Amino acid sequence: MDSVVITALDQEGRGVARVDGKAMFVEGALIGERVSVEVLRRKTNYELARMTELSSASPARTTPPCPYFGICGGCSLQHLEPAAQVAVKQRVLEDALWHIGRVRADELLAPIHGITWGYRHRARLSVRDVPKKGGVLVGFREKKSTYVADMAGCLVLPPRISALLPELRALIASLSIHDRVPQIELAIGESDEEDDAGREGGPVDVLVLRVLVPPTAADERELAAFAERHRVDLYLQPQGPASVRPLRAPARRLSYALPDFGVTLDFEPTDFTQVNASLNRVLVRRAIALLEPGPGENIVDFFCGLGNFTLPIARRGATVVGVEGSRTMISRAKANAERNGLAERARFVIADLFTATRDSLEILGPLHKALLDPPREGAIALVKALPDDLTRIVYVSCNPATLARDAAVLIHQRGFALAAAGVANMFPHTAHVESIALFVRGS
Questions:
Q1: In which element (H, E) is residue 127 found?
Q2: What angle do CA 406, 409, 410 make, to 5 degrees?
Q3: For the whole model, what pTM was predicted?
Q4: What phi and psi values does residue 212 have, to the nearest 5 degrees?
Q5: One of 66, 72, 154, 398 is an active-site residue; which one?
Q6: pLDDT tens figures, 415-425
Q7: What are phi and psi of 23, to 5 degrees?
Q8: Which of 109, 110, 102 lies closest to 420, judged by CA?
Q9: pLDDT tens across 55-84, in order?
């Protein structure tokens, strides 16, 4: 086939060209590049293709430093310079707002970005015993596959965790249940406590092993020795998240700090926290600056989780109610409010926000402002049900498409204006777009 010119990147990091009125998605191609392609699949409205020759390279193209790039499914943009990745994500957000929501922001916020390597404080590693590849594999899944990538390190994990991958392979292989451990979950936090072994507070690396059958006494001795040798805390998960328990109790407390607000939040290993802890601090700072909470104001934090935004809002003197569908997370948020001396200004309510109505939100009382931080599916029912007296909304999103859909409702139906929007590069080297938007009540 003749060469094509890439004019955009999609939300999976693929190059997009237009051919005979149809979109063509090309793996590995970047904006501005001319490439020769082989069509892999033809559909009525689009085509999937792979690049066979790079005729004209983008000046932002770079050599991926990871030897597993292209095999591992964890990263899709290592071949694009980090600054250019941020620009692409800003463009993805702008395009989604316009093409889906028919809205444009009055102001484009400067992108939030930080370190680009070693940033992942949360990860879910797959485990598979593959005799043909030498035994147990531990890592991320291969691109568009259920196979586990054969990898000895990962550059987006902290170096000390990356170096553990070969050790984890050997550990699992040594267990009698080596073929019954499908997953290892990583959670990194901080602690100001000293454990029974005399380890001082500081970074806490937790590994949660999903075990389909109980480990034997010999297995537990191997696990305990590994934990001591590598200064990690091991947990076992025989069933769902509620079944997680430390291999040796008591375990050190996990927490993370938001220094700008004098707040520290405790969490459990399988609780939701942001993957990129350092960028989360900047994101919270921006969200609070946009929301402008102050004494005398009643503010609601929807999808509040552990209180990541709730407690900073309360610290600014406002009265805040956090709303969340998980009873476990509400319990955790209440405890965090107590720990930080904010229980008098922060209360918490359990509610299913995906079925929110005007009537169901009346329990929250009179409100001046709102913060929304929904999952990928967005908050369409909630934005339709928001009370009319809100004057300011900050919306933190992990999916530009659902943000744009919800923005359309807020602007075209609810009388708000999109005052500002911008991206946060929460997941460098991936196509994931985290964003934040400010809506204010129109005149």
A1: strand 122-130
A2: 90
A3: 0.93
A4: -85, -20
A5: 398
A6: 999 999 999 99
A7: -80, 135
A8: 109
A9: 999 999 999 999 999 999 999 999 999 999
